Amino acid sequence: MTRAHLPSHAHADPHAHADPHAHGDSHSHSHDADSQAEILDLDAEVLAEHTADLISWLPVRTPPREIVDLGCGTGAGTFALLDSFPEAHVTAVDSSAEHLQRLREKACARGVEERVRTVQADLDRADWPDLGTPDLVWASASLHHMLHPDRALRQVHDLLAPGGLFTVVELAGFPRFLPEDAPEDRPGLEERCHVAGERFHAEHVPHRGADWGPMLTAAGFALDGERTITVNIKASGDDTIGAYALGGLRRIRRGVADVLPPEDLAALDRLLDIDGPHSILRRDDLGVRTERTVWAARRAG
Question: Are 16 and 107 in contact (CB under 8 A)?
Answer without folding.
Answer: no
